[in-house]
Amino acid sequence: MKLNIFETDTEVLASLAKYFADCAKEAIAARDRFTVALSGGSSPKKLHELLASEYRDSIEWDKVYFFFGDERDVPLTDSQSNYLMAKQTLFDPLGIDPSHVYAVQTPLGAEEAAKDYTRHLIHFFDGGSASFDLIILGLGDNSHTASLFPHTSVLTDESASVQALYIDEVKMNRITFTAPLINNAQHIAFLVYGAGKAEAVKHILEDPKDIQEYPAQLIEGADLQWFLDEPAASKLQNK
Ligand SMILES: O=C(O)[C@H](O)[C@@H](O)[C@H](O)[C@H](O)COP(=O)(O)O
């Protein structure tokens, strides 16, 4: 695991955008395509905007395939939709071919949408287990990532799949990658900035293992990188 800590969120975003481009170049050179699962929430918005501007001409966007590590059980036109956020901040500005974007089909209902997404992944990855080139994750103040929330049944799901469950904490159904599916990725990048995340970052990186309390501790992988600003890393003892 590698910690990339920068003074400001601007520097964090610049570093992650470069990392994204590097992962894309590596994947396209090896497999002529780059598969990436995006995170929801607000933190990625600035990353998307940076990619759509600074990296417009330096990534072969027509070889990039977009997925979502989790989604809220809302219409794809709803302001809470992770798909809509990415469409507005990344896909539309770059003119991404809609056939390269795999939105979670929430109009099917959460359970069916999760099954449908799992089927799509099996098909897309030629029947093998999905191994994304890059998965971008955020971190909630309560130590959740994707929609792996504390004290939920999905935390102990050992299948590399997409699951739907009601999350009492947010009073809505969520559709989420399981930890094994996330951990199958070639590269995993946490994007975490702001002082409000400091407690959660310390829990994940330095507190004893307690995945029910701190679900993001479940995330591990060959190349797991954290992109943090100083405020978010401020409670770490070892950095
Ligand atoms: O659908 C979601 O909300 C995300 O996937 C979630 O895991 C998010 O990354 C964290 O809640 C952090 O959200 P912020 O970036 O808004 O703080």
Written account of the structure:
It is a single chain. With 239 residues, the protein is of the alpha/beta class. It has helices at 9-31, 44-53, 82-94, 110-124, 179-183, 198-206, 230-233, and strands spanning 2-6, 34-38, 64-68, 70-72, 134-137, 162-167, 172-177, 187-192, 223-229. A 6-stranded parallel sheet has the order 1-9-8-5-2-3. A 3-stranded antiparallel sheet has the order 4-7-6. The model has no long low-confidence stretch (mean pLDDT 97). The protein binds 6-phosphogluconic acid. 6-phosphogluconic acid (6PG) is lined by residues 39-43, 70, 82, 138-140, 144-146. The site of 6-phosphogluconic acid has 13 residues, from loops.
Strand order of the largest sheet: 1-9-8-5-2-3
Give the overall silhouette.
Answer: globular
- Sheet of most strands: 6 strands, parallel
Protein structure class = alpha/beta
Number of strands: 9
First-residue to last-residue Cα separation: 12 Å
What small-molecule ligands were found?
A: 6-phosphogluconic acid
- Specify the number of helices: 7
Low-confidence residue ranges? none
Order of helices and strands: EHEHEEHHEEEHEHEH
Rg, rounded, reads: 17 Å
Helix coverage percent: 25-40%
Q: How large is the share of residues in beta strands?
A: 15-25%
Quote the average pLDDT: 97
Question: Which helices and strands occur, and which strands form pairs?
Answer:
Blueprint: E1 2-6, H1 9-31, E2 34-38, H2 44-53, E3 64-68, E4 70-72, H3 82-94, H4 110-124, E5 134-137, E6 162-167, E7 172-177, H5 179-183, E8 187-192, H6 198-206, E9 223-229, H7 230-233
Parallel strand pairs: 1-9, 2-3, 2-5, 5-8, 8-9
Antiparallel strand pairs: 4-7, 6-7
Helix pairs in contact: 1-2, 2-3
Residues 39-43, 70, 82, 138-140, 144-146 line the site of 6-phosphogluconic acid.
